[in-house]
Amino acid sequence: MIRFEHVTKRYADGTTAVDGLSFEVAEGELVTLVGPSGCGKTTTMKMVNRLIEPTEGRISLDGDDISSIDPVQLRRRIGYVIQQVGLFPHRTVLENTATVPHLLGWKRAKGRERAAELLDLVGLDPSVHGDRYPEQLSGGQRQRVGVARALAADPPVLLMDEPFGAVDPVVREKLQNEFLRLQAQVRKTVLFVTHDIEEAVRLGDRIAVYGQGRIEQFDSPATVLGAPATPYVADFVGADRGLKRLSVTPIEESDLDQPPVVHLDDPLARATERLRAEGARWAVVLDGEDNLHGWIPAGGTGPAAAGGTVREHARRMEAWLPLGAPLKQAFATMLQHDAGWIAVIDEGGAGRFLGVLTPARLHEALRRSIDADAQDVPRAEVAVETVTTVDSR
């Protein structure tokens, strides 16, 4: 969708902002441009909508050389979101959101209808917020309106220049979550500028790590964190890149252990006797359809619990996640509930139990993920040596 071919921007004073950039952004892909201030990432973005003209090279949008497209018409094909939002203070939220459809000559009713749809999509009820003015909104709400406005004319490309940088960390995380949900629905081609490597890793399908005017590495977040291409990239992503990689490594079925399971209607005495015979300290409790219900210790709830069924003594399961959740979330859940393991359920089902993830297996999953990238094979095919597999004789 977006293609840079040997693009350079050099200013009259001899400063080279970007030097010989060549890369592609596929349709529907979200690429984050990350690097320190002054490295050329915003210049790169502004050349896409011709707010800055390149000195050399060629930029194409959906196969068309952008230098041959009228700049105004080009910009109406591209959504643009900036850090300070830039809403018109004298216009309502609904009017702000309908700005581009209005400029494109849409009928007023159609533009307002589209604006209302987009406000709802970004989590703002148009009946509540539509007639308010920007000063009546929080910073996070104004940023959502900025995203809705950029999407109002359904542009194929979205440019985002540190859009969440002016809000506090809690709101920023919520906006990131909302944007990921939104992108999963609309699948725009996105260039997203940030100076925050954690934001780049969390949002990007691929990351372009900038040095001074050049891209040092252009790859998936997992590869950038697991196999930095240069010492500069390794230094930029930080010594804790292994921890950062937890956020982009999903839980897979091959990561799970299979503990003993019992069912709600099993006699408690028989279930606990079986667990003692197997030397197990606890079991996962499932319902009749193998959906997760809770857990039970091997001894039930004490000597008084000799009778009855598992149902009457099962304990609530607090620590659980769906398959595909990031390992970082799994680690956080273990810490939050002081749990030695978490249950994992089917991500698309009603709670079908798949297995449990332990700290040891979480560590193995991270190591396999790194080795899988290095060997270019599926993670499940990678064997790692663990403490339990090392011969200690």
Q: How would you portray this structure in words?
A:
It is a single chain. This protein has 393 residues and is an alpha/beta fold. The protein folds into two domains: 2-248, Rossmann fold (3-Layer(aba) Sandwich), CATH 3.40.50; 253-375, CBS-domain (Roll). It is 34% helix and 22% strand. The protein contains 15 helices and 17 strands. Strands 6-7-8-3-9-10 form a six-stranded mixed sheet, with helices on both faces. Strands 2-1-4-5 form a four-stranded antiparallel sheet, covered by helices on one side. α5 (108-121) packs across α7 (139-151) and α14 packs antiparallel against α15 (359-375). The longest helix has 18 residues, at 169-186. 36% of the residues are buried.
Strand order of the largest sheet: 6-7-8-3-9-10
State the fourth-level CATH superfamily of the largest domain.
Answer: P-loop containing nucleotide triphosphate hydrolases
CATH class type of the largest domain: Alpha Beta
The tally of strands reads 17
How large is the count of helical segments?
Answer: 15
Give the structural class.
alpha/beta
What is the molecular shape? globular
Task: Give the biggest sheet.
Answer: 6 strands, mixed
> Helical content, roughly?
25-40%
Gyration radius, to the nearest Å? Answer: 26 Å
Predict the CATH topology of the largest domain. Rossmann fold
Strand content: 15-25%
- Number of self-contained structural domains: 2
For the terminal residues, how far apart are their CA atoms?
58 Å
Please state the average pLDDT score: 87
**Poorly predicted regions:** 387-393
